[in-house]
Amino acid sequence: MTHDEVFTLPAPLSLESGAVLPQVRVAYRTVGTLRPDGANVVWVCHALTANADVLSWWPGLFGPGCHFDPADWFIVCANVLGSCYGSTGPLTPVAAGAAPLYQEFPLVTVRDMVVAHEQLRHHLGLHRIHTLIGGSLGGQQALEWAVQRPAVFEHLVVLATNAQHSPWGVAFNEAQRLAIFADPTYHAATPQGGQAGLQAARAVALLSYRSYAAYGLSQAETDDAKLTDYRASSYQRYQGAKLGARFDAYSYVVLSRAMDSHHLGRGRGGVPAALSQIRARVLVIGISSDVLFPPEEQLLLVRHIPGAHYAEMASDYGHDGFLIETAPITHLLERFYVQSFA
């Protein structure tokens, strides 16, 4: 069974920045049937521009016949605070009768996202989560949540993520935001504001999501005489337009800033101390060609999470490998769970 729902937090949400959102809605989807003992819950934390429909954006890993089959698992995925897929964000009113805040929407951190999802967990009556899983920004959320609530999660699976967003990652995000801010329509505060800038930002982001090898395999020219309009050029334009058709520039700015805010050690005595609080059984997956979240960041997680397991995938797809390489991920999960129940 599939259910799309919206949960309204019972009280205003005080953000880490000090701002307060008077009303917060969290859009979420559940798929499958919860067992009477509640032991089959898988909670998915989604990445930057995804939504609560995990079966649509993680096919091959979630869905009928996949490792996480709704016939066996009760799957929960909630849209993050600040996004544009049903949860409270820059284009939605933050109080009854209020106008959207657009570029004035307050700073949201990964911790704020987790606070909202923790309230949803209580609303759903889920006392234990068998597996918490996420990649990239989703992995940042999953780690933060496992630090905040170590007794709740039995298994934690994080892919292509880190304990603190790197200067390299912040720089990529800032370059994208500069592209959006350079679009004068962004400052007009309309639903379509900043679209050209958003498309340029996506083209920048794609360079960090893929790899030199991936472009060589998919975008190489077959006509040696060509002097313009290269396949790689049209591919960048296509990907920009594709995101522009389903996302908005204001949410993109909010969520990229949230990613920048990620720092498990903030106020906790540093990253190693924070990671040592995790009590779940943990699988950390790195991708050999990931230039945005390189494997050294995942190895740091493993060094400081008690008993964590590490696996590295060889992939030509770069960071996007966590969404694409579902067959090797499935194999790694099968090994992980067999070891867990041995």
UniProtKB/TrEMBL annotation:
Q: Which reaction does it catalyse?
A: L-homoserine + acetyl-CoA = O-acetyl-L-homoserine + CoA
Molecular function GO terms recorded:
homoserine O-acetyltransferase activity
Annotated positions binding substrate: 202, 320
Stored Pfam families: Abhydrolase_1
> A GO biological process this protein is involved in?
methionine biosynthetic process
Q: What is its EC number?
A: 2.3.1.31
Q: Where in the cell is it found?
A: Cytoplasm
Question: How is this protein organized at the quaternary level?
Answer: Homodimer.
Which PANTHER family does the protein's record reference?
HOMOSERINE O-ACETYLTRANSFERASE
Q: What is this protein called?
A: Homoserine O-acetyltransferase
Question: What is the primary gene name for this protein?
Answer: metX
